[in-house]
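Q: Got a minute? One more chain.
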Amino acid sequence: MVNAQIYAEATWLQGAIVAAILYGMVVVMSYVCWRSLWPRIRSHATGYRKNIFFFCYVTLLFVLGTIYIAFTAEETQNSFIYHRLYPGGPSAFARTSFSPPLGVALLLSNWLADLLMIWRCVVVYRDTRLHYVILGLGSVMYITSMVTGTLWLVIMSRPTKVTSGWMSIRFLFPYTCVALTINITISLLTVLRLLYHRRRISKILGPGHGAIYASFAAIVIESASVYSICSLLYLVPFIVHNPLSDAFLQMLGEAQVSVHILHGTHCDLRLRLYSRSLHHSSLSTVSQRARPGQNAAPPITQPGTAPSGCSGCPRPFPHPFHPIS
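A: Always. Here it is, folded:
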């Protein structure tokens, strides 16, 4: 019994430590995004309104991540310092206590991330017959997430929750399952559409022109896998009643925030590299055209656009995968 209690306390404390490490990643990646966005906003470059929107979006995610880690630290302090003699130990107190700002920060960060992910998926399917199907599916999933998350928050905030803490865990489980379903389903649909565009572009213009779609697909997979793994690491121990779930539970909020800011940072880096390669390719094309007796290279196009006179190319769509462009 004593060993089980010590194990539960250790997992809870280690979860708080790892969450603080993830917050450090959030701080660094938020700075990278702000540094990339601010010069474009000041210069009123192309996409001015979108840059302002995503600047505010990254800032809001950063604020929510800061609130989450601050109240996680406060809960850890209350459990292990002020209530260390609570029956069952600090881990038992942590399960029955609740900080409303911490729950609100967790839900809002998840909802903001899910909303952007669903919007990206809807955008890439906007010129297809499945557009309204994707829109309806995303709306149902998002509403389900909001309902289950709100139920969890309301039950956790009830005064009687202290004597029936099991209810909070019971309603957090379906919410996490819904969030995991949204993450996997929407990411899979987005990747399939991107790979479809890559195949058509590569077939018509050559393999090099479809590389950017493969890069974006890889970024979507990377982002989805991180949060999915964290969710599964919480759900599986919870199902088998292992205290290890307490450690991964504390990471969920910071994992969601860090993943979506990391997504934007990767998109910015890869799109810049692709733009530089386009610039060098265009210079090479000009030099080739200047030489007599050589065939001109095919025109270089930006990702997501079709060259003039190309009737078989996919219809262009904006790049919702690049939130800091």
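A: Residues 2-42 form the longest helix (41 residues).
Q: Perfect, thanks.
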